[in-house]
Amino acid sequence: INLRLGLKSPKLGQVHETCTACAGTMILEFAALSRLTGEPIFEAKARAAMDYLWQQRHRSSDLMGTVLNIHSGDWIRRDSGVGAGIDSYYEYCLKAYILLGDDLYLERFNKHYTAVMKYVSQGPMLVDVHMHRPNTNSRNFMDALLAFWPGLQVLKGDIKPAIETHEMLYQVMKLHNFLPEAFTTDFQVHWGQHPLRPEFVESTYFLFKATGDPYYLEAGRRVVESLQKHARVPCGFAAVKDVRTGTHEDRMDSFVLAETLKYLYLLFAFPEDLPLDLDHFVFTTEAHLLPLSLARINRTHFDMMQSPRMMFYAPEEEFSHSCPNTHFLFPKSNYAHSVRQPLKNLVEGACPTVVSRYYQAAAAVGPCRENDTRCYLHE
Prior knowledge:
Elements: H1 9-14, E1 17-19, H2 20-23, H3 27-37, H4 41-55, E2 67-69, E3 75-77, E4 79-80, H5 87-100, H6 103-120, E5 121-122, E6 125-126, E7 129-130, E8 133-137, E9 141-143, H7 149-156, H8 159-176, E10 182-184, E11 189-191, H9 199-211, H10 215-231, E12 232-233, E13 236-237, E14 240-242, E15 247-248, H11 254-268, E16 281-283, E17 289-291, H12 308-312, H13 326-329, H14 335-340, H15 346-350, H16 352-365, H17 370-378
Helix pairs in contact: 3-4, 5-6, 7-8, 7-9, 8-9, 9-10, 9-11, 10-17
């Protein structure tokens, strides 16, 4: 798109479709832009897109399709899940509430969430279904983008299924060194590419924040070791063309630095080493930080000379719409372990020969303590 001239109408006529995530992942950034500039049009347009998507949900199942026609609004692809094509729409329904304090976004998210947990969630797995026939699976594989979902469940406060799905993903990752771009419901590779995506690390970070369980530091350590051993090249980290062969692609996407490595850094950083109190911010889907104090700013007026300190550090009562501290909700240190325990052989049961060799090798290494893991990363 030419940023000065825009997209000319003849070209616009040739574009017929967009995915749900593309249309529904603007409200955080555009609302922030409106409140910082005093121009309400940005938030208004992004909200209109969210409103329209909500109207297009299936009224019986409350599920969303994946791709719709931008001219007619009709669904082109009606398969529904939480991965590619839909993922960040659900994310922004919840995060718009957290950032802006508008109960409408929370009400919509809760309806979608109930539908996802009723139809898409199948034990620790999340399998796409038909939005209009939600009791019927639309495919027999899962894609790597759904790995963000446990992190979103942490923000929702639904910790148990977050732990379960993350554990399933972690076992798949250990089996193949990386999380394949798509894998079957019996955990075999469906699409072997791995562009070093951040979603699994993102969920690992949020689960560690929620539970304090050093198990998630160990999960992060394994990610780092896989990156160093299988993706490190002289000029950075190369995307993996196929996890089965370990061959590389000549590319390193921007999200590797902006998200994957950022979430790894945050996972292992001690709170006192961070320049910001992250509890006063929300992460966008691209891992950018937006201050929760934006909820205080009038949509139509903002004084750019306002003190930055007032802008970023509001009193605690102004964050009453944000999520509760999970350390108080789940004070038992072994809670996460007790949830993971029944799933410890989930992938091994599906692929006994391959995984048993892995666990034998892992057992020889032995577990590492929390501080050891962090010091290892700092070194």
